[in-house]
Amino acid sequence: MPEREEPVRLAIFISGRGSNMKTLVEACLSGEIPAKPVLVLSNSYSAAGLEWATEQGLPIAAIDHRAYGDDREAFEKDIQDTLDLHNVEFIALAGFMRVLTSWFTEKWQGRMVNIHPSLLPKYPGLHTHKRAIKAGDAEAGCSVHWVTEGVDEGAVIDQEKVPVLKDDTPESLADRVLEREHLLYPRALGKAIEDFLAREG
Asked: Which CATH class is domain 8-200?
């Protein structure tokens, strides 16, 4: 297989402060991930991570989902237009708090991953730490998975585990899991992109 000269063109989607986005950008710039971040996109103009991305000289875009009412596909078509402008090849969802329709997930199947704060298939959706504590679980953690139409249902690429402590609150557990997310996501995204490159070749 001929060596690809250019790194994979990566878009990172965020909704808030973008702490996982920062770790991915840094891993790309250090060569840990064979990708180049070419766009940081948010569904909120006020996402704090956009300011950091701008400081790093990264292109940003904000497309407010609220402007589209219930027309989720129209929102996603404008996202797609923005991705096309930047020639994006691969997407990493990093705290992007929107459920994507099948129109978008099918278009990006095998080229889009997400990080989720539980040991999937346990606890898809929201309030994962509260649910793990309530269930009396001995451990919790985070997963990176391929994005499919079903919420948090795609095949798991990699995981990190943390013990659930006797005095844990959802907040304290979330803090410890987030530390593991920052270790996990660069490693798992690297695996996913290598898989994409193997399929492309």
From this structure: alpha beta
